[in-house]
Amino acid sequence: MNAREVVLGRVRRALADVPREEDPEREPLERGYLDSHQPADAVGLLAENLADYRALVHRSTPEELPGLVARLLAERGAASVVVPAGLPPEWLAEVPREVRRVPDEAADTARRLDGVDSVVTGCAVAIAETGTVVLDAGPDQGRRRITLVPDHHVCVVVVPDQVVDSVPQGLRRLDPARPLTWISGPSATSDIELDRVEGVHGPRRLDVVLLEE
Amino acid sequence: MSGGTYLGMPAFPRAAEAATRDERLRANLTHATHTIRDKRARAVAELPDWAELRAAGAAIKDRTLRHLDSYLERLEAAVTAAGGQVHWAADAAQANEIVTRLVLQTGEREVVKVKSMATQELGLNAALERAGVRAFETDLAELIVQLGDDLPSHILVPAIHRNRREIRDIFTERMGEWGRPAPEGLTDEPADLAEAARLHLRQKFLDAKVGISGANFMVAETGTMVVVESEGNGRMCLTLPETLISVVGIEKVVPTWRDLEVFLQLLPRSSTAERMNPYTSMWTGTSDGDGPSTFHLVLVDNGRTDTLADEVGRQALRCIRCSACLNVCPVYERAGGHAYGSAYPGPIGAILTPQLRGVDTVLDASLPYASSLCGACYEVCPVAIDIPEVLVRLRERVVEGGEATVRGSRVRIRPARGHAAERAAMRAARWALDHPGALRAGQRVAGRMRRLQPRRLPGPGAAWSRTRDMPPLPPESFRSWWRRTRGESGEAGR
Q1: In this structure, which of A51, A105, B45, B75 has its CB flanked by the most CB atoms within 10 Å?
Q2: Does any CB of chain A come closer than 8 Å to the CB of residue B255?
């Protein structure tokens, strides 16, 4: 008997007390919790919660955005920036030409990305109550590694369209078949005396731009 | 450098006796657990529907467990359809054998690991080392444990028993043996220690061809795996290597995508007291050009079906490994994690370990007693595991013996040795209470001879009186006092 049959056989014997006709799909599950905690100002709460976990939050109009992105890269002294294939070109319009644009290519090694300073992306959805941005590897976000290896991530959230109140609402907007990365502030750890410090392996600086269209 | 082992550890009381005398350990644990306790309470208080979320979390887990076979089959089909390969392991030896074979097939001799309770439980790193494969732990606390040739002592923060100065010393002394040495003049500031870990592990992430992880959740409906983390080491291990091997206990499955909405609210607040942890990765099989091109899922039983067979004890399988119960436990705070002798310390370990391994060792038989039954663990548990209820159930099994499932077979557990005196005393007490005349005579004799009362009990009772004061015997019993002052009828005061 192979291990699969052994394990499944043990499970079935262990559940001898469960009536055979019991069908979990037919029994509704009691979900008494809230679908949203109804924040009065979801975008404001998103900004507040992101900042609480040490993300740097900026608000911008479409006209201001190119200047803001250029300034954020300059503040960091970025000499190179990864650009996802579907990023709106105007977002980087004011970034000086000396700043090297690195396309997101499947052949790129992690080692090569390690030499890049910053990355600019959009996002799939942002969750106000938890201060989270979610990436789903869409065209304006690129493969997962490009938002991981560079030390500086600029993430643009279109508000209010991309903002939801809560985790349940966020999950409904996402496609589980896509690779997803939920980001709530820059990388951090609580491993030293259970106290939170920011800055371990992921980008140590996270700029979130709330773009008001 | 295989690290320590839990094998052959002494029973909880002996290990705890040593730990409670270690003042530095006590101070480290008190500081850390109190820090997180208050923060957790605040994070939970932010959600007015916490009680409903908790009830839903328990209900989803119970539903899954009651139909675990069909959800596992569904998961297997979904993962396979998405391009993953599913393997099954009945015990630790099988799981380690599968993972070792998968790693060796890649031709690689080094792997990077995401912190995983399951692989800790299985002793995977030691098994890999025997096959000539070096496993690098990449979680900061696991790194501290690995470099220090130590054992984890907490579910979330395996190096909780170390303070910042000890961590600095371990990094300075040992990092060079495993790769890039610690920077010159490393301070004990947590930010500097985190930076040292970043530099040390960077090269390993960039070169890694094989990653090994666990998973917090697996969605049966979609085949999606979920890993919740903080540092980014998880993302590195899950996305940069060409081959990813996830080793996951069978109880980690949840039925639907929607069910994640409950656990992604319960887990971070209970665990690190955050609204959300910094990074959560979700992947379904493999994706073209993004992340590992080969994905293996190893589903592990290793005692979980034995636990499932007990209708009271099975609730332990709801556990989502948040560690809130450790952080509030007065026994854990004083005894530390190592005394529990397994990868799962604290209250949850006291009910999980004896069920996963069976109560046939002295250590495992002592674990159900590693509690004052105060119930704080139950109150904070985000999936409402009634830990005291299961503890009492397991104590009954230790003392009385009885039916249990061990490695898939029904067996009769014999009463543990050392409880014979307790059983004899209880039998004697029952007889005496059933015979009022004898009880009265006995109480009279005891009252008259009370000056001769020993401070310590002789024989098997010595173990009881060693850590307790004997209650002083009163000159007369309540019943005789009542009769003397209120008369035979007992109707005084009318």
Answers
A1: B75
A2: yes
Half-sphere exposure for B356 (CA within 13 Å, toward CB) = 26
Residues of chain A with confidence (pLDDT) below 50: none
Split into its structural domains, chain A has a count of 1
User: In this structure, what are the phi and psi dihedrals at residue B210, rounded to the nearest 5 degrees?
Assistant: -130, 130
Mutant choice from A189, A197, A208 vs B, greatest count of B C-beta within 10 A = A189
Interface of B with A in 135-154 (CB under 8 A): 138-141, 144
pLDDT at B363: 83
Distance, C-alpha B143 to centroid of its chain = 19
H or E stretch covering B392: helix B387-400
Of the listed ranges B130-144, B210-224, B472-486, the least confidently predicted one is B472-486
State residue B63's pLDDT score: 97
Q: Is B279 in Cβ contact with A180 (below 8 Å)? A: no
Do the beta carbons of residue B122 and residue B91 sit within 8 Å? no
pLDDT confidence tier of residue B478, bands split at 50, 70 and 90: confident
In the DSSP assignment, the letter for residue B258 is G
- Shortest Cα–Cα distance, B394 to chain A (Å): 17
Q: Is B35 on the interface with A (CB under 8 A)?
A: yes
Is residue A6, in this structure, part of any structural domain at all?
A: no
Q: How confident is the model at residue B491 (pLDDT cuts 50, 70, 90)?
A: low
Residues near A178 by beta carbon (within 8 Å), at least 6 away in sequence? A136, A137, A138, B284, B287
CB contact under 8 A, A201 and B198: yes
Shortest Cα–Cα distance, A69 to chain B (Å): 23
Is there a cis peptide before residue A160, judged by omega within 30 degrees of 0?
Answer: yes
A132 vs B contacts (CB less than 8 Å): 276
Q: Name which of A110, A185, A190 is nearest B157 (Cβ-Cβ).
A: A190
In Å, how far are A131, B114, B216, B324 from A165, measured between CA atoms? 10, 31, 24, 26
**Interface check B247 vs A, CB under 8 A:** no
Interface predicted TM-score (ipTM): 0.97
Biggest alpha carbon–alpha carbon distance for chain A: 70
The tens digit of pLDDT for each residue in B188-208 reads 999 999 999 999 999 999 999
Query: Which of B157, B194, B255 lies nearest to residue A199, judging by beta carbons?
Result: B194
pLDDT tens-digit map of B434-449: 998 888 888 888 888 8
Q: How far is CA B387 from the centre of its chain?
A: 12
Q: What is the CATH number of the domain that holds A70?
A: 3.40.50.10420
Pairing of strands A132-135, A125-127: antiparallel
pLDDT tens digits, residue range B253-303? 999 999 999 999 999 999 999 999 999 999 999 998 899 999 999 999 999
- Domain B12-304 in CATH 3.40.980.10? The answer is no
pLDDT the model gives residue B1: 38
Question: Does A11 fall in a domain?
Answer: no
Contact residues, chain B, for A10 at CB < 8 Å? 90, 301, 305-306, 408
Residue A128 domain boundaries: 37-212
pLDDT for the residue numbered B492:
47
Q: Domain ranges for chain B, please list them.
A: 12-304, 420-486
Cα(B294)–Cα(B277) distance, integer angstroms: 27
